[in-house]
Structure formats: C-alpha cells, structure tokens
Design brief:
- By secondary structure, this protein is α+β, with helices and mostly antiparallel strands.
- The protein is built from 17 helices and 26 strands.
- The chain has one domain: Alpha/alpha barrel (Glycosyltransferase), CATH 1.50.10.140.
- Helices cover 40% and strands 13% of the residues.
- A hairpin with a 3-residue loop joins strand 9 and strand 10.
- Helix 3 packs antiparallel against helix 4, helix 4 packs parallel to helix 6 and helix 5 runs antiparallel to helix 6.
C-alpha cells in the first residue's frame, strides 16, 4: 500500500488535480446524455425484492466494517482495513454516525452503540492538545489527520492538523450529541462530551488569511498556504465554523468561500451545475446536512439547492462513463464513478490505446475544469449518491456486484476500487486473470458515504438527527440559508432543547 500521506486530499489532490484523461484525448460524446428525471421517484420501499435484499445486505456489511475495525478500547477507527493502519479522524466521524444507524437498524443495541460512542468521546476528550511535534492528538481543539491506533498521538511529522478532517470528526460528534437524547447517565455524558469537544475548536485561529479558513497547520511548517475556497467538501468546514457558540468565524466567511463559484458553474456532459470533479465533494457535507429545499444566496440566484447539484453531478459522471473518452474497459451506464480512492499504483504501461498512466491513491474525477481518470472505478462514488439519484445508483451497484462480485465484493461490501484496464503486477491490491485489478481493503472515508447515504435514502435518519442540532442550524442560518425545514416550528423546537 502506498503511503497514506497521499490521502491528504486538501493539500495535494484538490489543489493540483491534473487536467488529464489518461489514455488519449477527449473525444465527442457518443450520444446526448439522458436528462435526469424532474423528480427522483424511486424509493427503498418501491424496490423489487432482489434489489431490496441487496441494499439491505450492502448497508449491513458496510456498517460491520466500522463496528469490527474500530479499536474497542479507544474507539479509534482505522484509515483503512483489513490492512490495519493508523486511525483517520475523519473515519471516526463516520463511525460515530454509523453506530446510531446500527442501533436503529437492529444490528446492535442502543446500549452497545452508546457504549462505543462514549468510549470514543472519552478518549478524544482526554487526548493531549498542545503545540508539540510528537506528544499531542491535536491543538486548539483541532485534531491531526491521522492518529496512532494505540496511543492516539499524531501518527508522524508529515501529518497535518487538519481543518476538514476535524470537521468530519465533529460531524460525528454532533450527530452523537443529538442522537443520544435520553436521560440516562450514559447518554447525558455523551451529550456533555460532544458539546465540550465542539466548543473547543478554535476556528478563527485557523484563519491565517481571513476571512478564509486554512486547510491545516503543522508545528514545524505552521499554517498550510492553501485555504478552503470554492465548491467542494469544505462547505462543512465553514458551516461548523459559523455555528460555533464559542469560537465562531465572521459573517464574511461564507461569501469568501463562495467567491470562486463562477469558475465552477457550467455545463459538463450536457448537465449544468456547480462542478467539482471527484464525487466526494458532493457527498461529504451532504451525508450529514439535508440541503433539499434550503438555499443560500447562490442557490436562490441559480434556482437549485446543493442536493440537486449533487444529483446533476452524478448524472454527469454517468454520462462521462458512457462517452468514455479515455477508452477504459468496462465503462458504461452501469459502471461509473470517479472519486478519491485507492489505485493499482504509480505505473506507466504501453497499451493498444497508447501510453497509460496509472496511479495509487488519487483524487480521481471528471468535471468542467478537470478530468483525472486512469480507469479506476470506486463504488463509493455511485453509492454515496444514492440519496440523490437512486434510479441510476441502485442498478449500478447491483451490476457491479453481479458482474464482478467475486473480485470486488465480500464481507464488508465493496472493496475500495477496481480497474478493468489494468493487467500488470500492481503495487497494491491484486490483479486477476480475465478481470483486471481489485483493491484488497476498504477505506473509512469511502465506506462512510455509502452507509450514511443509504440510510438517508431509506429513512432520512442522519439528516433528521442533524436537523435537531442547534449548532448545525446556526451555521446554516449564518451562511444565509433559508426555507424548507429550517423554517419549520417542530425543527426549531427540537434544536432549542439541546444541549
């Protein structure tokens, strides 16, 4: 496995994605893309029995990855597994949310979910926060991107104090705060610890170049030179920073974040939307926040909300796979999806299609301003879009399993990624004769969107819980969001009851 330092999406892959179609020049589309339906009408309850059984199984297996991979004595969730590695704090955030889903689905009891959650929050709350190089889990309320699975300290000196990974962690922390709402000592302590952890994050300190928020900090290198600016997963960084009751950023932060939107708005593969090439940028914030029917100033001006924007992005990626400008094996209406994921390794291969350049972990994607594609498909790209576009996602996930399940589907659902065009000796994963390359592990930040979005599509659970959180509401309102559930009296009353 290539070093997971290259999983620093916000430092490397997002800032400098290569505008490239590996394997040949971009060609014209084979046919005009199909327009998405005006409204997605496919519901979980409307599935055929075999489809429903598949979705049930996939959700359970993906949940099991979080439940069985987490360190039971600390609650830390690994970055990847079964190739056990250090912990990713973003994966912890997905895990804390997964436990509530497991309790609601009956995979585990509520008491088991609360116990694991409390173990995790106690460990994080007690972890050292200081400015040292090696003896801290974080600083000023932020956490390092990767932590040692045993000690909970910074994994290595190349690991940054990450604003976005801390944000994903805090999403899970705030989910726990609002989900465990009973008057038991255990659940009361969960709420108190969650509140303490979120209140400790010093968001203005991370504004090295106000009003924007820096991507991170290291004791040796200080603040990373790049800020969160423009449409991607950084949406949630600003929403949590705006919602803080103790260390909020100024009102000008959201407008500064949105200032590059005009460069990303446009038509790709016949669909006009706010572009971001890898699909995770349309999924990470949306996994916790229900944007349906609520709009900020940009959304109101353009006549669509961020949920609809994510749906259009999914349809555009599918249209790109159908057009298949790079002539990659297997691409089509039911095999599509580019996002940050593992790959077979950094290799250059001569093929009938020309020189092929393959990569290991990389932020793959296809959009208006950039195409970064080496033939590697990640099931999470489609799976994490199921709440937006179920009519194209369900057939895609089923087709992947039916055609390639022997290589890409197992105990914990889908492996992270596969590549039907790669037949060499890989740096990571395994090549199978007659198939291609398949990964041999799952990543927490890719399993998370599959699990959370399946449940949001089925029941809206994660969205409903987060609507009750006063900090989420405050962040959205300070960003200028209005309408929909933000205006409903029942949601306002639920939020007022916390912490």
């Amino acid at each position: 496995m290539l070093s997971s330092r290259w999983r620093h999406l916000h430092v490397f892959a997002l800032v400098a994605l290569t505008a490239l179609v590996a394997g040949g020049p971009v060609r014209a589309e084979k046919s005009p893309p199909a327009a998405p339906p005006a409204v997605e009408t496919l519901t979980y309850h409307g599935l055929a029995p075999d489809q429903k059984a598949f979705i049930d199984e996939l959700e359970r297996r993906t949940f099991d990855w979080f439940w069985e991979s987490a360190e039971p004595y600390t609650g830390l969730v690994p970055d990847s597994w079964p190739n056990h590695t250090f912990s990713s704090v973003a994966a912890i955030g997905f895990g804390l949310t997964a436990y509530g889903i497991g309790a609601e689905r009956g995979y585990i009891t509520r008491e088991q979910a609360a116990e694991r959650t409390l173990t995790t929050l106690r460990f994080l709350a007690a972890a050292p926060q200081n400015g040292s190089e090696d003896d801290a889990a974080g600083y000023r309320g932020f956490f390092y991107h990767f932590l040692d699975m045993q000690t909970g300290r910074r994994e290595a000196r190349w690991v940054e104090l990450s604003s976005v990974d801390t944000t994903l962690l805090m999403n899970g922390v705030l989910f726990a705060q609002s989900y465990y709402d009973r008057a038991t000592p255990q659940e009361r302590e969960i709420r108190q610890l969650a509140d303490r952890l979120y209140r400790a994050v010093d968001w203005p300190w991370m504004q090295a170049r106000k009003p924007l928020i820096s991507m991170g900090w290291t004791p040796g290198g200080q603040f990373i030179a790049t800020d969160w600016k423009g449409y991607d997963e950084g949406k949630m960084v600003y929403l949590l920073a705006l919602g803080s009751p103790t260390h909020p950023v100024g009102d000008d932060a959201w407008a500064a974040w949105c200032s590059t939107y005009p460069k990303q708005w446009g038509t790709f593969q016949g669909h006009t939307f706010l572009n971001f090439a890898p699909m995770f940028g349309h999924q990470y914030t949306e996994a916790w926040v229900d944007f349906r029917g609520i709009r900020d100033a940009w959304s109101r001006a353009h006549g669509l909300d961020y949920a609809e924007n994510g749906r259009l992005a999914a349809y555009a990626q599918r249209a790109y796979a159908i057009a298949n400008p790079g002539q990659w094996t297997g691409y089509g209406a039911d095999v599509w999806g580019l996002t940050a994921s593992d790959g077979p390794g950094d290799l250059t291969v001569t093929s009938p299609q020309g020189v092929r350049r393959f990569s290991g972990y990389m932020a793959r994607g296809a959009g208006l301003n950039e195409i970064n594609d080496d033939g590697t498909i990640a099931p999470t790209a489609a799976g994490g879009s199921i709440a937006f576009a179920p009519s194209i996602v369900v057939p895609t996930l089923m087709a992947m399993k039916q055609r390639y399940g022997n290589y890409i589907y197992g105990r914990y659902g889908f492996v992270d990624s596969f590549n039907l065009s790669f037949h060499e000796t890989p740096r990571d994963g395994r090549t199978y004769p007659g198939f291609g390359w398949a990964d041999n592990q799952q990543l927490g930040i890719d399993q998370g969107p599959i699990l959370l979005m399946i449940e949001n599509w089925r029941s809206g659970l994660v969205w409903k819980v987060m609507k009750k959180n006063p900090y989420i509401r405050r962040g959205l309102q300070r960003a200028g969001f209005t309408g929909g559930w933000l205006e409903r009296a029942d949601a306002k009353a639920a939020a007022a009851a916390l912490p």
